[in-house]
Amino acid sequence: MTTETSKDILQKFIFDNAAVRGELVETSNAWREIQSRHAYPKAVRALLGEMVAAAALLSANLKFNGSIVMQIHGDGLVKLLVVECDANLRMRATAKLRDGADVPDDATVTQLLNQHGRGRFVITLDPLDKVPGQQPYQGVVPLIGDDIATVIENYMLRSEQMDTKLWLAADEHVARGLLLQKLPRNSAIEGQVKQASEEEDLDTWNRAVMLGQTLKQAELLTTDVETLLRRLFWEETIRVFDPLYPQFHCTCSREKVANMLRTLGKTEVEAALHDLGELGVNCDFCGKHYGFDAVDCAQLFASDTTADAVAPASGVKH
């Protein structure tokens, strides 16, 4: 269970004079907000919560105005896990199960996501202010690992060539995580005056990982960030930065739904309208409903501007 001091906070820190950095994150309000729209099975909830914590940890180091989108495309009981988090730690998340999936509480990552070895882990870096012709960067790797932390560690080593260690845990109350990274030599590290030798960097990294490995999942679930930082690294010389504050935020909009309908084409939209009378789209992340009747859909394809097309027609009809 969670503690009374639980909150939404991310604490960045560096080891003094060594190319090693760390972060601790805790999300409780944001995580409960994500869960409030769906009744996920226990095992799925734990996986999604761990991805929420991991996305916040990785997003805290974004060097551009944009978002990280983490996806796992599964071939087991779960079809898809998605977490999106921007540089301001505004996040949303969702999971999709296969039709009729009966998920046991003790289901493994393999059972849930990689039964036939075809699971894929995808990270997309999506800048908000793209230059003309710029596409989001996307890295795709096989789903390698028995838990979410190992999957992401393998991705970071394979795609980013960066030594990364993660410890993640989530229940219905809170999602927490610890990240440690060994940075490249001669990298500019905020707050440091000088660097250690390569041997000292490696020694600091090995010692930090050893301390992190003492952290048990139950301890991670029940201990606040400040206490964890002090308990794990009280003998180390570390420098902490101003905390950051994760929060739930959904970026869905009527305009985005309208653009999606446009991509389907007029013929398909009209056929769907004939069968259904009105097109209703619910956001997978926040559950918000967007309705488009015949007049709304006609405007989609008759208007030259998105703004005209997405204004609800019900406001002008008699």
Automatic annotation (TrEMBL):
It comes from the Bacteria. PANTHER family: 33 KDA CHAPERONIN. Keywords: Chaperone, Cytoplasm, Disulfide bond, Redox-active center, Zinc. CDD domains: Hsp33. It comes from Telluria antibiotica. Pfam families: HSP33 (PF01430). InterPro entries: Heat_shock_Hsp33, Heat_shock_Hsp33_C, Heat_shock_Hsp33_N, Hsp33_helix_hairpin_bin_dom_sf. This is Hsp33 family molecular chaperone HslO.
